[in-house]
Amino acid sequence: MIRILIADDHTILREGLKRILDGVEDICVVAEAVDGHDTLNKVRTEKFDVLLLDLSMPGRSGVDLIHQIKAEFPKLPILILTMHEEEQYAVRAIRAGASGYLTKESAGTQLVSALRRIASGRPYISNAVAEQLALSAMPKQQQAQAQHSNLSDREFEVFLHLAKGKSITEIGELLHLSVKTVSTHKTRIMLKMGLNSLADLIQYAITHHLL
Questions:
Q1: Would you say residue 138 has pLDDT above 80?
Q2: Can you list the domains of the chain with their CATH numbers?
Protein backbone atom coordinates (compact mmCIF):
# COMPACT_ATOMS: atom_id res chain seq x y z
CA MET A 1 0.00 0.00 0.00
CA ILE A 2 1.32 3.44 -1.02
CA ARG A 3 0.63 5.91 1.81
CA ILE A 4 0.10 9.49 0.63
CA LEU A 5 0.29 12.86 2.36
CA ILE A 6 -1.59 15.54 0.39
CA ALA A 7 -0.27 19.05 1.07
CA ASP A 8 -2.42 21.79 -0.48
CA ASP A 9 -4.10 24.84 1.02
CA HIS A 10 -7.30 24.45 -1.05
CA THR A 11 -9.88 22.18 0.59
CA ILE A 12 -11.79 21.63 -2.66
CA LEU A 13 -8.66 20.49 -4.46
CA ARG A 14 -7.70 18.10 -1.66
CA GLU A 15 -11.19 16.60 -1.80
CA GLY A 16 -10.92 16.29 -5.58
CA LEU A 17 -7.59 14.49 -5.31
CA LYS A 18 -9.00 12.09 -2.74
CA ARG A 19 -11.90 11.31 -5.07
CA ILE A 20 -9.46 10.50 -7.87
CA LEU A 21 -7.59 8.13 -5.56
CA ASP A 22 -10.67 6.67 -3.89
CA GLY A 23 -11.03 3.04 -4.87
CA VAL A 24 -7.43 2.67 -6.08
CA GLU A 25 -6.47 -0.51 -4.23
CA ASP A 26 -2.75 0.15 -3.76
CA ILE A 27 -2.96 3.86 -2.81
CA CYS A 28 -4.26 5.37 0.42
CA VAL A 29 -4.42 9.02 1.51
CA VAL A 30 -3.49 8.85 5.19
CA ALA A 31 -3.10 12.56 6.01
CA GLU A 32 -3.51 16.11 4.71
CA ALA A 33 -1.63 19.37 5.31
CA VAL A 34 -2.82 22.93 4.66
CA ASP A 35 0.43 24.93 4.61
CA GLY A 36 4.20 24.62 4.72
CA HIS A 37 4.47 24.44 8.51
CA ASP A 38 1.71 21.84 8.73
CA THR A 39 3.46 19.81 6.02
CA LEU A 40 6.77 19.82 7.88
CA ASN A 41 5.05 18.81 11.10
CA LYS A 42 3.21 15.90 9.44
CA VAL A 43 6.35 14.67 7.67
CA ARG A 44 8.28 14.79 10.93
CA THR A 45 5.69 12.95 13.00
CA GLU A 46 4.06 10.45 10.63
CA LYS A 47 5.12 7.89 8.03
CA PHE A 48 4.42 8.32 4.30
CA ASP A 49 5.56 6.72 1.07
CA VAL A 50 4.96 9.80 -1.12
CA LEU A 51 4.38 13.49 -0.41
CA LEU A 52 1.99 15.09 -2.92
CA LEU A 53 2.96 18.75 -2.60
CA ASP A 54 1.45 21.96 -3.93
CA LEU A 55 4.20 24.35 -5.00
CA SER A 56 2.43 27.49 -3.69
CA MET A 57 1.04 27.44 -0.15
CA PRO A 58 0.88 29.93 2.74
CA GLY A 59 3.99 30.12 4.90
CA ARG A 60 7.05 28.19 3.90
CA SER A 61 6.53 26.72 0.45
CA GLY A 62 7.96 26.09 -2.98
CA VAL A 63 11.57 25.15 -3.58
CA ASP A 64 12.55 26.26 -0.08
CA LEU A 65 10.16 23.73 1.48
CA ILE A 66 11.41 20.96 -0.81
CA HIS A 67 15.00 21.66 0.24
CA GLN A 68 14.02 21.51 3.93
CA ILE A 69 12.10 18.24 3.61
CA LYS A 70 14.81 16.52 1.57
CA ALA A 71 17.48 17.68 4.03
CA GLU A 72 15.62 15.96 6.87
CA PHE A 73 14.08 13.07 4.94
CA PRO A 74 16.22 12.44 1.83
CA LYS A 75 14.46 9.16 0.98
CA LEU A 76 10.91 10.60 0.96
CA PRO A 77 9.71 10.90 -2.68
CA ILE A 78 7.97 14.20 -3.48
CA LEU A 79 5.51 14.67 -6.35
CA ILE A 80 4.86 18.32 -7.11
CA LEU A 81 1.29 19.18 -8.13
CA THR A 82 0.89 22.73 -9.39
CA MET A 83 -1.10 25.03 -11.65
CA HIS A 84 2.10 26.28 -13.32
CA GLU A 85 2.85 24.71 -16.69
CA GLU A 86 6.10 26.63 -17.25
CA GLU A 87 8.97 24.11 -17.30
CA GLN A 88 11.21 26.43 -15.28
CA TYR A 89 9.10 25.71 -12.19
CA ALA A 90 9.61 21.99 -12.73
CA VAL A 91 13.35 22.29 -13.29
CA ARG A 92 13.81 24.18 -10.01
CA ALA A 93 11.62 21.69 -8.12
CA ILE A 94 13.52 18.69 -9.52
CA ARG A 95 16.87 20.30 -8.72
CA ALA A 96 15.67 20.85 -5.14
CA GLY A 97 14.94 17.15 -4.77
CA ALA A 98 11.42 16.50 -6.06
CA SER A 99 10.94 13.18 -7.85
CA GLY A 100 8.21 14.35 -10.18
CA TYR A 101 6.14 17.25 -11.43
CA LEU A 102 2.49 17.21 -12.47
CA THR A 103 0.14 20.05 -13.40
CA LYS A 104 -3.27 20.15 -11.74
CA GLU A 105 -4.95 20.06 -15.15
CA SER A 106 -3.43 16.67 -15.90
CA ALA A 107 -3.98 15.19 -12.43
CA GLY A 108 -7.23 13.50 -13.44
CA THR A 109 -5.53 11.27 -15.99
CA GLN A 110 -1.95 10.99 -14.74
CA LEU A 111 -2.01 11.17 -10.93
CA VAL A 112 -2.28 7.46 -10.17
CA SER A 113 0.47 6.44 -12.58
CA ALA A 114 2.70 9.29 -11.35
CA LEU A 115 2.31 8.25 -7.70
CA ARG A 116 3.01 4.59 -8.51
CA ARG A 117 6.09 5.48 -10.54
CA ILE A 118 7.53 7.76 -7.85
CA ALA A 119 6.75 5.29 -5.05
CA SER A 120 8.76 2.68 -6.97
CA GLY A 121 11.80 4.96 -6.96
CA ARG A 122 11.55 6.26 -10.53
CA PRO A 123 11.15 9.91 -11.61
CA TYR A 124 8.02 11.28 -13.26
CA ILE A 125 8.77 14.19 -15.60
CA SER A 126 7.59 15.28 -19.03
CA ASN A 127 9.77 15.35 -22.13
CA ALA A 128 9.74 19.16 -22.02
CA VAL A 129 11.04 19.20 -18.44
CA ALA A 130 13.68 16.56 -19.26
CA GLU A 131 14.86 18.78 -22.12
CA GLN A 132 15.10 21.80 -19.83
CA LEU A 133 17.10 19.79 -17.29
CA ALA A 134 19.48 18.71 -20.03
CA LEU A 135 19.86 22.30 -21.25
CA SER A 136 20.57 23.54 -17.74
CA ALA A 137 23.42 21.04 -17.44
CA MET A 138 25.13 22.34 -20.59
CA PRO A 139 27.87 25.00 -20.52
CA LYS A 140 26.47 28.52 -20.34
CA GLN A 141 27.63 29.42 -23.85
CA GLN A 142 25.53 26.58 -25.27
CA GLN A 143 22.36 27.56 -23.49
CA ALA A 144 19.56 29.61 -24.99
CA GLN A 145 17.45 30.04 -21.89
CA ALA A 146 15.04 32.74 -20.82
CA GLN A 147 16.33 35.50 -18.55
CA HIS A 148 14.50 34.22 -15.48
CA SER A 149 16.45 30.95 -15.63
CA ASN A 150 19.51 32.89 -14.42
CA LEU A 151 17.84 33.78 -11.13
CA SER A 152 18.58 31.86 -7.94
CA ASP A 153 15.69 29.90 -6.41
CA ARG A 154 15.06 32.63 -3.83
CA GLU A 155 15.29 35.38 -6.45
CA PHE A 156 12.85 33.48 -8.65
CA GLU A 157 10.42 33.22 -5.73
CA VAL A 158 10.69 36.97 -5.03
CA PHE A 159 10.32 37.65 -8.76
CA LEU A 160 7.02 35.75 -8.86
CA HIS A 161 5.61 37.67 -5.89
CA LEU A 162 6.66 40.98 -7.44
CA ALA A 163 4.97 39.95 -10.68
CA LYS A 164 1.76 39.26 -8.74
CA GLY A 165 1.80 42.81 -7.39
CA LYS A 166 3.00 42.05 -3.87
CA SER A 167 4.83 44.84 -2.04
CA ILE A 168 8.31 44.38 -0.59
CA THR A 169 6.83 44.32 2.92
CA GLU A 170 4.26 41.68 1.94
CA ILE A 171 6.92 39.52 0.30
CA GLY A 172 9.08 39.77 3.41
CA GLU A 173 6.20 38.55 5.57
CA LEU A 174 5.36 35.70 3.18
CA LEU A 175 8.95 34.47 2.90
CA HIS A 176 10.04 35.38 6.44
CA LEU A 177 12.69 37.80 5.15
CA SER A 178 13.60 41.33 6.16
CA VAL A 179 12.52 44.24 3.96
CA LYS A 180 16.19 44.98 3.31
CA THR A 181 16.82 41.42 2.09
CA VAL A 182 13.80 41.50 -0.23
CA SER A 183 14.94 44.87 -1.60
CA THR A 184 18.38 43.41 -2.30
CA HIS A 185 16.82 40.47 -4.13
CA LYS A 186 14.67 42.86 -6.15
CA THR A 187 17.72 44.87 -7.20
CA ARG A 188 19.59 41.73 -8.25
CA ILE A 189 16.57 40.48 -10.19
CA MET A 190 16.27 43.73 -12.16
CA LEU A 191 20.00 43.71 -12.95
CA LYS A 192 20.19 40.05 -13.96
CA MET A 193 17.14 40.31 -16.19
CA GLY A 194 17.93 43.72 -17.63
CA LEU A 195 14.59 45.18 -16.52
CA ASN A 196 14.02 48.86 -15.83
CA SER A 197 10.74 48.85 -13.91
CA LEU A 198 8.13 46.69 -12.19
CA ALA A 199 5.92 47.18 -15.24
CA ASP A 200 8.64 45.55 -17.35
CA LEU A 201 8.88 42.70 -14.83
CA ILE A 202 5.13 42.08 -14.88
CA GLN A 203 5.02 42.19 -18.67
CA TYR A 204 7.89 39.70 -18.81
CA ALA A 205 6.07 37.34 -16.45
CA ILE A 206 2.90 37.53 -18.55
CA THR A 207 4.78 37.00 -21.82
CA HIS A 208 6.54 33.91 -20.43
CA HIS A 209 3.34 32.49 -18.87
CA LEU A 210 4.72 32.71 -15.33
CA LEU A 211 1.50 34.01 -13.77
A1: no
A2: 2-135 (3.40.50.2300), 147-207 (1.10.10.10)
